[in-house]
Write a structure and sequence with these properties.
It contains 1 helix and 4 strands; from the N terminus they run ββββα. The protein is α+β, with helices and mostly antiparallel strands and 104 residues long. The chain has a domain of 69 residues. Strands 1-2-3-4 form a 4-stranded antiparallel beta sheet, with helices on one face. A hairpin with a 5-residue loop joins strand 3 and strand 4. The longest helix is centred in the C-terminal third of the chain and has 19 residues. The protein starts with a strand and ends in an 18-residue tail after the last helix. Bound molecules: zinc ion. The site of zinc ion has 9 residues, from loops.
Amino acid sequence: MLLIWGYRTRVLQLAMVTFLCGRCGNPAAHALRKAVMKFTLFFIPLFPINVKYTTQCTFCGATNRLTKEQALQAEAQGASQQPAMQQPPVQYEPQVAQQPPNHS
Ligand SMILES: [Zn+2]
């Protein structure tokens, strides 16, 4: 029986994160990507072998490898950036302590 096996890499874009690029020095948007390499058998992806996180500067195109921790941190940062730009700043009203009037 002939076993047909191989690898397949799927690339997902997780978020757009803005930070200072280490190569061009611009505060540019960076695409945070996750590349998952999977072992395939008869062209069916079975299990992931390798997961890679990278960022790519949209200004100069430089790519950087990230650790999983760095990627998760960057993703959280990117996720928190977007709503902050769309929503007006939250206004906090001063809380007035309700005290019963003292008639004694
Ligand atoms: Zn750059």
